[in-house]
Amino acid sequence: MKTTATALGLSLVLGCTAPPTLQVIDSRDGALRFEAPGTADHLAADAAAGLVWINAEGTVRALRLATGEEQWQLRGRATSTSPLLVAGPRLVFRGIDGALVAVDAASGAAGWERAGAGGRPLHALGQSTAGVFGVDGAGQLWVIDPASGEPRHAAQPVAASGSSVHHVAVQDGVAACQTYGGQVRRVDLAGGSAPPPQAGATAIPPLLHGDRLLFVDRDGCVRLGADTAAPTWSLCIPSGVASLAAAGDLIYAGARRGELRAIDATSGAVRWALDTDGTEVRIEPHSDMVLVATNHDGVYAADARTGEVRWHVTMAARIRAFAKVGDLVVVRHADGAVWAIDAASGTVRWTRALRAGRADRVLLLDAARQQAAIL
Fold first, then answer.
1. Could you tell me the CA-to-CA distances from 304 to 6, 137, 209, 285 in Å, in that order?
2. What is the pLDDT of residue 1?
3. Entry pTM
4. What share of the chain is helix, strand, coil (3-state, %, to 5)?
5. Residue from 336, 324, 328, 335 nearest 373 by CA
6. Which of 80, 290, 297, 308 minimizes the number of CB atoms within 10 Å of its CB?
7. CA triplet 66, 72, 73: central angle to 5 degrees?
8. CA Rg, the chain, in Å?
9. How far is CA 25 from the centre of its chain?
10. Distant-in-sequence, close-in-space partners of 277: CB < 8 Å, separation ≥ 6
11. 47 to each of 37, 63, 94, 287, 366, how far by Cα in Å?
């Protein structure tokens, strides 16, 4: 089935002089639920915490998702650039002294605080089933139980002391780390010697596929293996890699010139390829499909096993953000328009023209499933 639509003809609500806002939209029909003043780079949405963000003054604010009514706020407690991690009943962020701070997501009540060795600040914060984690200034990775604040593993060196760590992933006792300079390393959290770091592409964060490191090197080659210096396989994408994802036994590499390649995780052989007329391919595996967003050619849904196109919604615009929430694929264009597409059929459920303003943020809320996507 092929569904075709056009990004032309949507009227824009112009507001170039208006202050930036956070706009919360209902996923059912695209209706605006409420607007909150201000904007933030890091937001979180959760059934207990509601909508939470940190403003430029380091105040953490939590609003009710249904109404926008304030639930609680903590003035001057956070680093304004900190990510927000929702881990069960806890909300975790970086405090003004650089330590991890955990509070009760529903009330903002104090939980625990944890710094790195010698009280060092923690950076490159993240979370997984292993816990919440961060890297201190000595290059040591701390994986912390979100309930108690206690380390789950002894701190492991993942980067040289003083290195600025950009991205960390933790899974099944293994960590992947990338510095701002692009150095990529795989570390066993149980200890032991780690393979030497390799030069990676700084724009593509490394992933873990089982206990193996998946990353893109500076030559545009996708590499998978336990040893960064001697990967199990390597596959080069001539036009360069724009995005990387993994699902089951397939690795997906989206190219800058519009191609998508599905790669066998065991052998490195290309199972199938999809050529689009767009650029900067972005990928979202979903059920038995892979969703593909491109600049100037819209969104595709391809069969994960064969690559057969199930539907294609054509859009002439450049895509600013792309996310999956509930049963919808949500696309935000650079011109401010938001499109919601049924993930199963490719039917366009609704479109909404937002005020043109690059600082504005949008949160699409699926209240029934307690899910949200930030665009």
1. 26, 41, 17, 8
2. 45
3. 0.85
4. 0, 55, 45
5. 324
6. 308
7. 125
8. 21
9. 20
10. 258, 294, 296, 297
11. 21, 11, 21, 24, 11
CB contact set of 275 (below 8 Å; sequence gap of 6+)? 258, 259
Whole-angstrom Cα distance, residue 334 to residue 338? 9
For Cα atoms 211, 215, 216, give the angle at the middle one, nearest 5 degrees: 165
Residues 208-249: tens digit of each pLDDT: 999 899 999 888 899 999 877 788 999 999 888 999 999 999
Buried/exposed code over 345-371 (b: 16+ C-beta within 10 A; e: otherwise): ebebbbbbebbbbeebbbbbbbeeeeb
How do residues 161-194 score in pLDDT, each as one tens digit? 777 888 899 988 888 888 888 888 888 888 766 6
CA distance 80 to 91: 15
* pLDDT the model gives residue 284: 92
Helix, coil or strand: residue 65: coil
